[in-house]
Design brief:
The chain is of the alpha/beta class. It contains 13 helices and seven strands. Helix 6 (about 110-125) runs parallel beside helix 7 (about 135-150) and helix 12 (about 230-250) runs antiparallel to helix 13.
């Protein structure tokens, strides 16, 4: 971090700060905007997109930005940025295409929308920093390939959970220990949880969460609706898998065939027709 701080300080001294635009104006964006505007040298917040532009205006006010405009064309956006103004827009592609933006930070949580913005940014030489774990988990490696083709950076950020977890992993490794599990459970790990403490939560989520019998009946109804043909196809797939695994086990001596065979037996028991449990051929499968 000292290296990064020194690099940003140098950019501030040279009068060429990193020009950052935010895609999204939610809670996390407010915190990031406040950090960039008020505590970070070498960066400038030059634009904010939100599908409701008023929320972007509210973010700018929260961060203490005063000279904020909302142009409607690419030429107007570029002119406003050259004049040192901050842009608020309902069109993220105006920021992705502008020569007055160096980096876009995606803070939306949307996969398809985020991908479209990323591709447009890549085409115009923009780096992308993610506070969008959803897109990173689904098509992150694909977008990384396209970023390399365009010679730009596509990266997670240090302050979001994945980056913080990696830093924690590096710290533990640096202590000479061997990390075995990396995860994020937030407030879910409560060793004192019991039916009384969970009563309010169950009440908000309806009777299904309060009555285990309703949950079981719903699952049973879904199982009855499964088409017998689908079960036969699944059983056939398992049987073929077991046969291949048993052949491999003869040469490698592993125990996977036993485990796979148990799964196939469980499926056959489930798919065996019993009165009132198996669906008729042609029924819709809603499970």
């Amino acid at each position: 971090m000292i290296i990064v701080d020194n690099a940003l300080r140098a950019r501030e001294t040279e009068g060429r700060p990193m020009r950052v635009a935010l895609i999204g104006a939610g809670f996390m964006s407010h915190g990031l905007a406040n950090h960039i505007v008020n505590t970070t040298q070498g960066m400038r917040l030059v634009g904010v997109y939100n599908r409701n532009p008023q929320r972007a205006f509210d973010l700018c006010k929260y961060a203490g930005l005063r000279d904020v405009v909302s142009p409607s064309s690419q030429a107007e956006v570029d002119a406003a940025l050259r004049a040192g103004k901050t842009i608020v827009t309902g069109d993220p592609f105006l920021l992705a295409r502008s020569a007055g933006v160096d980096v876009l930070v995606d803070i939306t949580g949307s996969v398809e929308f985020g991908a479209r913005v990323a591709f447009e940014a890549f085409r115009h030489g923009k780096d992308i920093v993610l506070m969008n774990a959803e897109i990173d988990a689904t098509i992150g490696p694909i977008l990384h390939v396209y970023a390399e083709k365009h010679g730009v950076i596509f990266s997670a950020c240090d302050g979001d959970e994945p980056g913080v977890q990696i830093n924690l992993y590096r710290w533990v490794k640096g202590l000479g220990l061997t990390p075995r599990v990396i995860g994020n459970v937030k407030g879910l790990q409560d060793p004192y949880r019991n039916p009384t403490t969970q009563k309010g939560w169950a009440g908000r989520w309806g009777p299904e969460c309060r009555d285990g019998h309703l949950v079981r009946r719903r699952i049973e109804d879904q199982l009855r609706a499964i088409d017998r043909c689908q079960c036969d196809r699944l059983q056939g797939a398992f049987t073929r898998h077991v046969a291949r695994t048993e052949v491999r086990s003869q040469y490698h001596g592993d125990s996977r065939a036993v485990r796979s065979g148990g799964a196939a037996c469980a499926l056959r028991r489930h798919s065996a027709r019993r009165p009132g449990t198996a669906g008729r051929r042609g029924e819709r499968c809603d499970a």
